[in-house]
Amino acid sequence: MSSTRITFIAVATSFTAVASLQSLIIPVLTTIGTDIGADAIGQTWMLTAWLISAAVATPLLGRAGDLVGRRRMYLLALGAVAVGSLLSAFAPNLTVMLIARILQGLGAAVFPLGFGLVRDAFPATRLAGAIGALSAIMAVGSGLGTVIAGPVAAAIGWRGLFALPLVLATAGLALGYFGLSRSAARSTGRINVLAAVLLSGWLVALLLPLSSGNQWGWGSPLVIALFVAAAGLAAAWVTVEVRSRTPLVDMRMMRLPAVWTTNLTALLTGAAMFGVWAYLPRLAETPTASGYGLGVDASTAGLIMLPMLVTMASVGFIAGPLSRVLPFAAQLTIGALVSGAASLSIALFHGDVLQLAAAAAALGLGTGLVTSSTPNLIVRSVPADQVGIATGMNANIRTIGGAIGTTVFAAAIGATLGAGGLPAESGYVAAFVIGAVLAVAGGVVPFLGRSRTVRPAARMIPVVESPLEEIAEAA
């Protein structure tokens, strides 16, 4: 088997393992909390611990991979996922579970590292297809947890959920250790420690209130202080990076039109995407006594999301060949607009399972186009020795967008809670309309940088054969 095939299979396996951990415990969070003695705040921390760990590890380990070798950092991050998944499966209490979730969060660094490994291994003619397929796998993995959590937990218990990421991470480790070559392109210099501390600081200060503001109160002194601290630390971080001879994140790179517009689109579409993913199943599970809910169980809600995974995967694998006639920038815009239409459809038409499943399929189509085109636009716009940090920051920005999106959805829906504890239908309608607006705004953003000249490097990578052909030949 050729090195390109091994690289693709190894990275695809690791992407699925890590991406599934984003949503795997959400449908069974209450069940886990009951078993390990975690109250509502503790359950929120199970999500927040992963989120913050991933946000910090993604750019830092991505940059470390640029400097000391992506293979080494890839194996380190994937090893943390395997250990964290094993700990989660046997966690006796909240403390152990939080440690496990932090370790799992470190694995988010495999996304920028994996894209860098693929860029090193693949010839230019097949690179865009490979990146598009991996992006689709990453997106499918993110939604996979929502689909399988209910049925798996009902069949073998919630602890069995962590067998999937454990097995996949172990397989990815074996393939990576024996099959991946060491990265050819490396950046010179060192990690700027002050910049790393400031970056970590403002990410933590921002994500803590975004994920826990509903419990702490948005007007509480702690939340306000954290937002102020985030703004101050972010300003200090930018200042340090601009003045540094060895920046952690090259601000000149971040100002490239193809980079900053793609990052802003990732923020907006990430907010819409994660908001819809989190609350579409909840809408379906709302009791029929509410007058609008379908009253389905978690397993059925997961099946409603299944068409999304099918369309996401299908689009992701054809995004590369499609770029011959439809450039990635156009795919990004179309995908965002389709996602917006899907969210609006949920707001207006949610009276039966088929309507929601059709909207989920459309959402998968749009999300597949967005997630496949985004890393392609980033990778082909930056030097090879900056791929790790550039894609890491893009993934982080999408994560921040996801935190913002779920918070906004929660606020819109929670504001209409009635005496019985159920939100009014208007709350869900408002939330999904907001999701539509965010997605459409993300689709408009690429036009903002169109008048600027794109670096020649951005056109250096032609398009592409699908990696499906690679796998077929290997078989």
Relevant CATH superfamily of the largest domain = MFS general substrate transporter like domains
User: Largest sheet, if any?
Assistant: none
- Give the helix/strand class: mainly alpha
Pick out the low-confidence regions: 451-475
Written as H for each helix and E for each strand, in order along the chain, the element string is HHHHHHHHHHHHHHHHHH
| Helical stretch tally | 18
Q: What's the shape?
A: globular
CATH fold description of the largest domain: Growth Hormone, Chain: A
Helix share, percent: over 70%
Average pLDDT level: 84
CATH class of the largest domain: Mainly Alpha
End-to-end Cα distance: 9 Å
> How many structural domains can be distinguished in the coordinates?
2
**Second CATH tier, the architecture of the largest domain:** Up-down Bundle
Rg:
21 Å
- The fraction of residues assigned to DSSP E strands is under 5%
Number of strands: 0
